[in-house]
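Subject: Sanity check before I submit

Could someone independently write out the structure tokens for this chain? I want to compare against mine line by line before I put it in a report. The sequence has 95 residues.
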Amino acid sequence: KAVIDTPSFIIDDMEKLETEFQIAVDMGFDGKLAIHPNQVSRINKLFEYYDLDKIKAIVSQYDITGEAVLKVDNKVYEKMHIAHFKRILKEHGIS
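---
Independent answer below. Compare away.
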């Protein structure tokens, strides 16, 4: 199942909007709802880009350590993030 973030009601401040979108990406959401046409292209761009090599490395490290929480580059990854990354890898034909 896809997990979609709530819409942003910020439509005039692109800096705040970008920050909110990036938070949704970092939290592992699969997408974000839009309430204004100006938001759609940026949402699509953020959610279609994945560093597949980095994601694969994080998943591998998580699986190897067996820990509940993994810290990489000052970011914390938990089971929900790894599940999301595994779905992305599967969608791209990477196991």
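---
OP: Matches mine. For the report I'm noting this point. The beta strands are 4-5, 31-32, 70-72, 75-77.
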